[in-house]
Amino acid sequence: MSSNTFNLMLKSGSIIPLDGAWGTELNRYGLPTGAVPEAWNLEQPASVAEVPRSYAEAGAKIVLTNTFGGNRFKLAKSGLDAKSAEINLAGARISKAAVGPDVLVFGSVGPSGEFLEPLGTISAADMQAAFCNQVEALVAGGVDGIVVETMTDLEEALCALRAAKSVQPSLPVAVTLTYDKGLHGYATMMGVTPRQAAGQLEAEGADIIGTNCGNGIENMIEIIRELAACTTRPLWAKPNAGLPQLVLGKTVFPATPADMAAQVPALITAGARFVGGCCGTTPAHINAIAEVCLHSSNPDSTI
Hints:
This protein has 303 residues and is α/β, with parallel strands linked by helices. The protein is built from 12 helices and 12 strands.
């Protein structure tokens, strides 16, 4: 694990560019609509490797793994729960082998697709155990950190955070939630506000706190500003390429690389230290974002 590299990143004060969307990129490399992305770690590893490789070449300094739905609860819906460890191990190894030593790999841990008790039937202990199994495989595959992402239930996010810290206490862990804007401000679909999330995540030892998906960069600037007001942890932001639109029967994300890059300075001013993209973003988006991050970190640099 490159913990020294991560610590140097933090101490440098630089703005760290992250990778972009995975699902749409895998589709571009041939993943059929409706297929299980994580299964490609075993079936089409060379195609999966193109995603982190292209983002690293675009300037990302942290890339993820193709393991967003790699927990056993989510994989069980496709009959792949018995292969959870194998899928996560392969996902970590694919991303690690695809990038150079100066690019870190964070294992992606997404929602289980289940509800915790009493709303659902899964106990917190079982949820944490499932995430432990996933994180153990990611760590065995050599990841440099974990990102618990696209969460809406704070208790589930905490289960994943606790799992990661119990498996490898020194492993950096980022936790991001997805917020919607309502009449009373921002909250997840489960009613969690940025202030509530930041307070509990910091108390439980999250190294990075943030938000991803669900919003274009304009709304994400507001969310990051709220988070910055109530936590001292570095902040992680991965906005979508605008809000999705239906064009000729296809979902498209309208924000161009230039559109997003133009607003990255405001996102950084709001408090973001780690900046990338989510749905609809491509290596071209990340390249544009990375150039702004470089200039923000080194104002005398030539873009």
